[in-house]
What does this fold into?
Amino acid sequence: MSAQQRDLGQIYRQMLRIRYFEEKVYELFLRGVVPGTFHLYQGEEAIATGVCANLCPEDVITSTHRPHGHAIAKGVSLQSLMAEILGKETGCCRGWGGSMHVGDMSVGMVPAIGIVGAAIPMAAGIGLAFKLQRVERVAVCFFGDGAINTGAFHEGLNLATVWKLPVIFVCENNLYAISTPLSQVFCLPNIADRAQGYGLPGVVVDGNDVLAVLEAAEVAIKRAQQGDGPTLLECKTYRHKGHSRSDPARYRPPEEVEQWLAKDPIPRLRNHLVSNRLASDAELAILEQEVFTEVEEAARYAQESPLPDVARAMACA
Ligand SMILES: Cc1ncc(C[n+]2csc(CCOP(=O)(O)OP(=O)(O)O)c2C)c(N)n1
It folds into this structure.
């Protein structure tokens, strides 16, 4: 299916659900309701949305310390996600994981892993399981540019390629690993260029253009489903906020931030929808209100939910 034939209204809704959800998380944090830290995905919504729109519930994703967008795009409910972030019993991990470990295997999301790069070989292992089971399922591994110099990146990409595993490696290159610019730790023009060294296709994608992500992910997923092995997708993007909730991100030049904010993927898709008469302003305003209400409802649900029972803290299940 070409990106033009998809229901782009649904894609817009999904990106907006991620954006509004995280705005609410930040608001709740300022009100002192969120325990622990979190890492906002704002600015990168087109990647999770564009990739996961091509997946079935049976396909599996792995995620990082910045997992809210991946979770929402893969189908974790806003209610259970918000409850997890607030450490509540009704959370997708029953309040035991918090923001950095959200996940729900019933929709194909392995609980997120905060160790940089650690999920890369794990995704290869999931792909190996699918291959051995002879099922047409794929594993998608999201990771940041900070993961590309870990041994796990080398092991995971190499084995997945050698064994032709159905894995899509999605590098969300937002130019910084905490405060370290990619240019200080990497010499090639593109992370995707690394793929050549392992013998898999490496594709550079504008990660702020959801139409481009949809198309590139579709090609990579088909290739994996046909038994032709993995692909490395490098999605170039930018996080709007600091690394974590306490980071003012002063290490980024203001003009760089400004340039990237102008490429915000959400208004970009909105403009596309309106200028191509795929949706009117009024229709999108209704959709935006619906998403706002859905997020408010999730926040209310999470806040009213009980905390986990302390007596269960040392139990295994
Ligand atoms: C193995 C390991 N080393 C260091 C850290 C601390 N740490 C947490 S996030 C992060 C940066 C990750 O950057 P990147 O992979 O580019 O993802 P982004 O935060 O940009 O989404 C680091 C170094 C960690 N979690 N795991």
Observations:
- Residues 140 and 218 are 12 Å apart (CA to CA).
